[in-house]
Amino acid sequence: MNIRILASTAVLMGAALGAQQPAAATRPAIKPVGATLIKNATILTVTKGRLENTDLLLQNGKIAQIGKNLTAPAGAQVIDATGKTVMPGIIDPHSHSMADAINEGSLSVTSMVRIRDVLNPTDISVYRQLAGGVTTINVLHGSANTIGGQNAVVKLKFGREVDEMLFPGAMPGIKFALGENVTQKNGQTAAQATGRPLRYPATRMGQEEVLRDAFTRARDYKASWDDYNAAVAKGDKTLVAPDRNLELEPLVEVLEGKRFVHAHSYRGDEMLMLLNVAKEFGFTVKTLQHGLEGYKIASEIAQAGTGLSTFADEWSYKVEAYDAIPYNAAILMHHGVVTTVNSDSDERARRLNIDAAKMIRYGGLTEDEALKTITYNGALQLGVEKRVGSIEIGKDADVVIWNGDPLSVYSMAETTFIDGEIFFDIKRDKEMRDQMAKERAALEAADRRRVTPVVP
Amino acid sequence: MKRQGMIETSGALADKSRSLAALGMTGKALGITVAALTVLASSAHGQLGSFNPNPGPQGTFAIRGGRVVTVSGAEIPNGVVVISGGKITAVGANVAVPSGAQVIDATGLMVYPGMIETGSSVGLSEIGQGAVATVDIQEVGSFNPNAQAFYGIDPHSAHIGVARVVGITTVVSRPTGGILSGQAALMNLAGDTPPKMAVIPKLALVIELPRSGFGGRGFARAAAVQQGGPADANRVRQLQMDSLRAMLRDAEAYGKAHAAFAKDKSIPRPAHDVVLESLLPALNGQMPVIFPADRATDIRDAVTFAEEMHLKPVIMGGQEAPAVAAFLKQHNTPVIVTAVMKLPSREDDPYDVNYSIPAKLAAAGVQFAISTGDKGSEIRTLPYNAGMAAAHGLSKADAIKSVTIWPAQIFGVADKMGSIDVGKMANIVVTTGDLLEAKIDTKYLFIDGRLVPLDTKHTQLNAIFKDRP
Lengths: 456, 469
Description:
Low-confidence stretches of chain A: 1-30
Mean pLDDT of chain A: 92
Oligomer: heterodimer
Number of helices of chain A: 13
Shape of chain A: globular
Order of helices and strands of chain A: EEEEEEHEEEHEHHHHEHEHEHEHHHEEEH
């Protein structure tokens, strides 16, 4: 494993070893970002309402000013956004984009594996999502096992190295999973046909037991380190440090509130089980992922302080999704649950703005509430709410210019900024297309061996 | 007898449409066929009864004061639509409300013809994974022209209510898989029995043509590719094509024999065969044939094959239809575009390559309709597929047509539905705004001139749980 060794105090318990270290923060920016003044736009701040005919200054990668008749600093590019709408970059709290592997599903507990080790920064899906106004994604391990691998929060800086794409300061997380994908009922016949043995747990009973067992072991592991550190602090120099356990370290971080749990779950009862196990072990589940029956236990989820990230209107594709309703997000939000709409799909990720608009139809969210489900609430769920998710002075310049209301199916993202840099621009896209077509034609013309296909 | 020599590809094709990412598992782990599953089905569906409340009677209604988008003509800003006996009996700005009519106040609302989703299998597949007994979408074997969707459609499928409340009033529901998959039905999304829903029970034949370069379809294809490589795969495809041709020619001969006997009873009486019989409407050109095809080469193959066998093709899929647009126009072949929301198939495709398929086909003068291509639960996203096409170059007016009058024309039912015109079936949706927008809502829904309650499985669960303390 590609573990990065970091400095001194953090080595305590080894807790800071591993995923999500802000590698990008430790290196200089690849190139300085110039200023951009976006003039005369409708600005959907998400947290502070809607501003008409307003200017937005992006400087040094941050949102520097919001106001009327702002002056462009020397050298700034100026974009006339009259008739256009600016909103924060979309945050997708459940993605598998860029991941060259999704599931280490061989064991029931694979907390030691890390999605960041298999991220492919050249995944074309990143570009397609930029064209849909997405700027941050939460790349999760799959849902094959009760305790899966560690996540990676990524800014979609297409064309850059992975280290520069990792979101500096995002809370480390881990994927848990409950229900059908874990019990593998749907794949049992195929498994038997190929000789693959059935894996424990095969029931929701077993899932509870796997969680209890893992956190019991994690608690003991933590105690052994706590005892050791206390003794060392008292001056004992004779003790040998406990063996490191890469499986349990991330779970200790969960117990200490240093790592978020993102738990794939569908049925109300299984979610409640997890919330109760978490309460017993003294941690809070950060998000229930999918949580399609969350609406059945909305008050319990609210009381646990847990968030939920759901589909807008996917349902009926398997038994545990048969009671999914598109009112889920609205019911949860009205109960005070921090709720987001996610894609879990390279396809749907490109049009989360439409999924957010559906939340107005189903359950009557306001436009701001609907926008929050794909922006600010996602930032809260990933621990980056001070950086992104709304248009406020001092936040990262992750903003998108739309040619109309982003909640309209007729609108398109035209320019997508991350940290003040343009990573998608619709005009530039057209130019690159023409350029590519020319390049291809030239290459084909140069290839004398090429046989022209016969068109019937 | 005749069918004995045919290659049997008895296995089902795996469900290709469902995103594996949504399942959080790799494609390989779930690349199992529907037929291979023997998991017991959920019994919940059968027990819960119907989520689709029955429509009211065919009364006389006047929808008054709304902006009427007739689709066939100009919009009427403050219009009246009169419905009686299941039909639209009057449309206009200055239309008298008949005495005794139930008046629907549509002030500030929009009035549209119901949308038609032509790429579905509504009622044939309830829960795609883990509940195989709710999936009746594909018969065993490769040649099932007489498998009729009409007989498998569950009028109590929860998908029906959920789809109709966004304004989809009619669907084409088709069997899939094999080669001659069966017959699609045109069904209204209201009524508690299939006959009550049916508009045309036997609408179209479905032929999933073995694909060139892929060695045909089904298990035989997979086995050949695995064991013998491309040469064997192509041989299998050729055998499948031969079998298909043989069956269609047998049916042609069968038709001729019966026609001859009808004229001259002195010749030997030909035996009856329900399977061959079922192919005659397609061979006579009365029944269109749906050919699922996305690649340019498969589209060309389908059109060429249809021409050879004198069939009336409708291409279903059409992802690469723009590349063969001139060919399609030349052959007067319509396309049901199900690929608007599909991911581009090549890494170097423009990001909007599929969003812009309808705009490209419109510019090339190819007849088309837009569809989700979804089996049932997600057909409610039909308006957003059309809206996305409009965001990417299709005019808004054409986007509405692509889900109303154009699909009706493609299947030869434009005299019955697809616009708000006198004499047509009263399939009408009254909304709070632009029909294709995601944030609008439906206020009234008429199917076959009946007022349809807007309750669904989803509104029912919402009502039960939304205020739970």
